[in-house]
Design brief:
- By secondary structure, this protein is an all-alpha fold.
- The protein is 79% helix and 0% strand.
- It has 5 helices and no strands.
- The N and C termini lie far apart (26 Å).
Length: 98
């Protein structure tokens, strides 16, 4: 699963080189939307989604970064302590990697 997450985050990062900024933006938003839906599922899937959001946060700029951080910050209110801890770590890493 980590390999798939890594490949998907690299595809997300490659969108900044897309010839059409509009298409790249739509592609990034679609990816974020799918992750938002996964965050409503079971804990193991949510943990993977939080790790993936952290990867995307390290590759994002401006409004995309804001959207990703917002999704990560929402997970800080999770009833699952491991998920809260993971979300906090990913937020911290996303901020410090910029």
């Amino acid at each position: 699963m980590a390999y798939v997450r890594r490949v998907a985050s690299q595809v997300y990062a490659a969108q900044k080189f897309h010839p059409s900024h509009l298409v790249a933006s739509v592609n990034r938003r679609a990816c974020q939307s799918k992750l938002y839906n996964i965050l409503a599922l079971s804990s193991p899937l949510r943990e993977t989604a939080v790790l993936f959001l952290g990867d995307l946060g390290r590759h994002s700029m401006d409004s995309d970064l804001c959207s990703i951080l917002e999704m990560l910050l929402q997970q800080l209110g999770s009833p699952s302590a491991p998920l809260r801890s993971l979300a906090f770590t990913e937020v911290r890493i996303s901020f410090t990697s910029k």
